[in-house]
Design goal:
60s Ribosomal Protein L30, Chain: A, Alpha/beta knot, seven-stranded parallel beta sheet, five-stranded mixed beta sheet, 19% strand
Length: 276
Amino acid sequence: MMTLPLSTQHRKWIRKLHQKKYRREEQLFIAEGVNSLHAALDAPHHPVREIIVDHDFADRIRDNPSAFPLPSMIPVYECSSNDMEVISSEETPQGIIIVCQQKEFRIDDGAGRLGGMVIYCEEISDPGNLGAIIRSSAWFGFSTILVGPFCVDPFNTKVIRSSAGAIFGVEVYQLVHCDGPVEIAARDGYTLTATVPEGGIPLHQWKQSGKTILMFGHETKGLSPQLIERADQRISIPGCGAIESLNLSVAASIIFYETAVRWNSRETGCNYLTER
């Protein structure tokens, strides 16, 4: 493996990618760890532009190159452990960072090909929640995510980490205003389904059928009144304990499972009750 030295200027440039402003300007983002590298190389979206490794990780590759097959066309930069700590977002860096190109998905380009199940995240503020929702949606076979303009950046390093590599295999449509799902539903025949903490159809009684847009709101405030009012149906997860509410990403995962049992078994023949 041939490596290039990481210059001070290059290090500063990578560090800037921790900021949303520069990620948008450069249309790039960073991810960390071997799992992220494998996910990026295996998935069709967000190609790897360059790889940065520290000296220890570089030695591991040289000692066992078959365990870390790196494409020859992607430049690999080598740095000290101190430099890795500077450019990493993790308390304990894994020794490898990848810089990836953001593939931009546009709603107009996606007309007619968004798939049968679409997830809309209106205003999620916690990166861990958004990353977990992306991860769960990918697990259950839902690969279209619409993200509102007031959501946390889906290419935030904490979102990437929480998605466990799922971000590389789903289509994330950014800056989708709350009118977006309404327009898509009218244009392409989707049912708008609002998730609400209480007062909706109990999830086990929900008669979901056909193309659906599942809408999730802010962790505390929930969906905007505008979207709740425009929704064709509202669903809730009933509980019987003393806790006031479920964590948003946990609630989303429960809904995804119930949806997948109905949707995927009908559309793909996969029976989640027996095959998972």
